[in-house]
Amino acid sequence: MRHQVRVCAGLVAAISLTTTGCSSSHDSGAKEAAGSSASTPSASPVQLQALVPVPAGSSHTDGPDAISGNGIHLRFVVKGAPADVMNAYKAALTDKQWDVTTIVSSSGGPSGGGGATYTGTKGNNYGVFDGGGWGETTYLNVCTWPTKPAEPNCSRGNGKP
Fold first, then answer.
1. What are the boundaries of each domain within the chain?
2. b/e string for 9-39 if b means 16 or more Cβ within 10 A?
């Protein structure tokens, strides 16, 4: 339980770092170039969901819920170790031509916890991709907007993962 609290606190800190533009990861600011997306037009809220890959191994999906800035919030529960799930999700984003930046990542060590927070752009579209968990369960929160909002907050809530 104590380790779970530390993992949750770490994920909250990661979201805070995302909204302030700061970074504390060993590979912070590392860009993945998956092709140019500068000419991709901005998506409407209805089109945003199609830009987001569904994680492999998803056992539950919630959303999309409308969020400020004409964005959407999706939540996924994924069967798999958090570090593995988040690495695979980063690859899936780049496969969909998102330019991804790692804000923070954690393998969780031998006890199986961990996760990561990424931000990304696809043309004018902006996303925050935050996931973590324990053992073989990963909770992934995805928020996307047609353009980067002033405060790109992808908070969890409403009793959902």
1. 2-145
2. ebbeebbebbbeeebebeeeeeeeebeebee
For the chain, which ranges sit under pLDDT 50?
1-38, 158-161
CB within 8 Å of 95: residues ≥ 6 apart: 34, 53
Give the start-end residues of each E strand in the chain.
Answer: 31-32, 58-67, 71-79, 99-106, 114-122, 125-134, 137-145
Count the residues in the chain: 161
Query: CB neighbours of 78 closer than 8 A, spacing ≥ 6?
Result: 55, 56, 57, 58, 59, 85, 131, 137, 138, 139, 140
